[in-house]
Specification:
This protein is 31% helix and 14% strand. It has five helices and nine strands. β6 and β7 form a beta hairpin.
Length: 264
């Protein structure tokens, strides 16, 4: 009787450590590659508001060094001061909001579970997303209690010769009666008076407020206690037209205050 005996080729014992080492190297290489991709993706982050303000501050300092006239230096220093004040204001007013408690809806005094997924909901509950924070991104209009609806054109209107984004440009956008050659903001009161416009110290809706610290704004509302609301441009470096402050006291923040009144 014959027996068929098949010879099998055996792997030498000394090769197993090499296979294990090779597997470990491959695994380590894959993990390193994944970590590199994760770090690369995590490193791409949008610039924070504080970082953008720092960049703006550096840009203003460089412009002050290169300013050719004293008036330009004064305007840039005022802009820098406004930026610093806004940064301090953000730090003082930062309050961490407490998370709101979830409320379980009830029908006939019985709790109803609401399951929200992308595909289906167990109850026909329509959810609406309401933004609680105030947005200042290029508003198109505001409503004044005295003047009614006020359009806020963000593109330069015909007849406005001031540089886009400056406070003088912002006032000219909503008050076409102001002159095109009134100079820098701090010069407006004198220039308007020379052209026959009445000036004074009493705020009125529809007037222009001039701070001697080189800033102007358009007054939209006035309260009996002296608080006002304005629309303005170039507030804290924001180069568009909006109501950034709400009700505020205009005195003692950027020098003396003068109001320019439109002609009847």
């Amino acid at each position: 009787m014959k027996y068929n005996i098949t010879k099998h080729k055996l792997t030498p014992v000394f090769t197993f450590p090499m296979l294990l080492v090779g597997g470990a190297v491959t695994t380590a290489h894959a993990e390193t590659e994944n970590e590199t991709k994760t770090e690369t993706n995590a490193s791409v982050k949008p610039l924070s508001t504080e970082y953008r303000q720092r960049l703006e501050n550096i840009r203003i300092i460089e412009r002050i060094k290169k300013a050719e006239s004293q008036e330009e230096k004064t305007a840039l220093k005022t802009q820098k001061l406004n930026l610093i004040l806004e940064q301090k204001k953000r730090k003082l007013k930062f309050v961490e909001e407490k998370p709101k408690e979830e409320v379980t809806p009830k029908v006939n005094n019985k709790e109803v579970s609401v399951k929200t997924t992308r595909s289906e909901t167990t109850t026909p509950v329509r959810r609406q997303t309401v933004s609680q924070s105030r947005s200042y991104s290029t508003p198109q209009s505001i409503t004044s209690g005295t003047l009614g609806k006020i359009a806020l054109p963000q593109s330069t209107v015909a007849g406005n010769a001031y540089g886009h984004g400056w406070c003088t440009w912002g006032v000219k956008q909503v008050a076409p009666w102001v002159g095109n050659n009134w100079g820098n903001a701090y010069q407006w009161a004198a220039s308007a008076s020379a052209q026959g416009f009445q000036t004074g110290s009493t705020p009125k809706p529809g007037s222009v407020i001039v701070w001697s610290g080189n800033h102007v704004a358009y007054v939209t509302d006035v309260r009996e206690d002296g608080m006002i609301q304005v629309v303005e441009a170039n507030y804290a470096g924001n180069r568009y037209l909006a109501n950034f402050r709400g009700w505020f006291n205009p005195n003692g923040i950027q020098g003396s205050v003068t109001y320019i009144y439109p002609k009847a």
